[in-house]
Design brief:
Layout lengths: L17 H11 L2 H21 L6 H33 L5
Helix pairs in contact: 2-3
Length: 95
């Protein structure tokens, strides 16, 4: 083997990794991690309540959990858009 050959294994750049993209995105719009955390919280709560759902059908329980998760994510996205509009138009120093 010659030392001039390229490596068979891919090289990972730290600037393009998933973690760095998530950190960069959370700095640009801070409500993205809030939406992710809310989604995880709703899913965790849904799994906990799944055991104690009583006589409720499984399909009804899953529909309620889906609506709750989507509502939280849509709410976080709305807050993020409002925050970015505030930052762009109201908090921006006048030139």
């Amino acid at each position: 083997m010659s030392s001039n050959q390229e490596s068979v294994l891919p090289s990972f750049e730290t600037d393009n990794s998933q973690t760095s993209k998530l950190i960069r995105k959370s700095k640009e719009s801070p409500f993205v991690p809030v939406g992710i955390a809310g989604l995880i919280a709703v899913v965790g709560y849904g799994l906990y309540k799944l055991k104690h759902r009583g006589n409720t059908k499984m399909s009804v329980h899953l529909i309620h959990m889906r609506v709750a998760a989507q509502g939280f994510v849509v709410g976080a996205m709305t807050c993020g858009v409002l925050y970015s509009m505030y930052r762009e138009y109201l908090a921006k120093p006048k030139e």
